[in-house]
Amino acid sequence: MAFSLRNEHIVDYLPAIIYQNFAELAEYYNFIDAGRTHIGDIPSRVVRVLSKNNDRYEYVLFIDEERYLPLRVDLLDKNNDVIEQFRVITANQNKEIISELDSLNKVNMPPLLLIPKATQALNYNWRVTTLPEGFKEVKRSNHQIAENEFSQSILYSDGLFDFSIYVNKSGQQLNSPERDKALRYGRNTIYTYDKDGNEITFIGQLPFITAQKIVNSVVFTKK
Predict the structure, then answer these.
(1) CA torsion, points 15, 18, 20, 26, in degrees to nearest 10?
(2) Cβ–Cβ < 8 Å for 70, 44
(3) Burial of 167 by CB count in 10 Å (0-12 exposed, 13-18 middle, 19+ buried)?
(4) Topology given in CATH for the domain delimited by 16-106
(5) What is the rounded CA–CA span in Å between residue 223 and residue 218?
């Protein structure tokens, strides 16, 4: 069965920063002109994108000075090591490509898949009290992880980076250092912390120290 999904842009592997409104990001990020260089034989402007609170990873953009296209995008961790990179290998710009893309408007697409919206708000007995500036709640979800066991999650985003907090009953009280575990894979950090018999897990695109602060800020209320 074929179907279509409504989205603001096509699903691809381009960095999230390419689709963002820089005027909106400027409230939480600094854009620093880092000079000029060449990508291949193309003159490029180098722009560093850093969070004002130094609690996120850093983007370095290499932008074609003539066509304003990103030729290379580096994502750096706190040690200035590249943890992810987008690089243009070949580029071709001409009017024929534009006309070919226009022809897509005439293609009969599969029917649009309508995803029902939640009819009832999900209320949890926990909340995150410390968020990096600019992050907003996007979605709440419940997940069944065993026959009689469920996990609650909240997704947050600032437009460039996303993370989710998952909470479920751990069924046991753990003492340090067993109560917390951390792992980083590329840009993604996974951090789990046991608090008051609840297992709190952070999965997202922020440095460990920021993830730790967010998880430690989770508070529970009686329900």
Answers:
(1) 100
(2) no
(3) buried
(4) outer membrane lipoprotein receptor (LolB), chain A (2.50.20)
(5) 15
Query: What does the alpha-carbon distance between residue 104 and residue 140 come to, in Å, rounded to a whole number?
Result: 35
* pTM summary value: 0.83
Which string of DSSP letters, residue by residue, matches 63-127? EETTT--EEEEEEE-TTS-EEEEEE-S-----HHHHHHHHGGGGS-PPPBPP-PPPSS----SEE
Question: Domain 126-220 in CATH: superfamily?
Answer: MucB/RseB, C-terminal domain (3.30.200.100)
Query: What are the DSSP E strand ranges found in the chain?
Result: 29-39, 42-51, 58-64, 70-76, 82-87, 126-128, 136-146, 149-157, 162-169, 180-185, 188-195, 198-204, 218-220
Task: Tell me the pLDDT tens digit for each residue of 154-213.
Answer: 999 999 999 999 999 876 555 555 567 889 888 999 999 998 888 999 999 999 999 999
Q: What is the mean pLDDT of residues 67-94?
A: 90
Q: What is the pLDDT of residue 217?
A: 96
pLDDT at 77: 94
- Could you tell me the residue ranges of all domains in the chain? 16-106, 126-220
pLDDT value at residue 87: 93
Same fold, 16-106 and 126-220: no
CA distance 45 to 68: 9
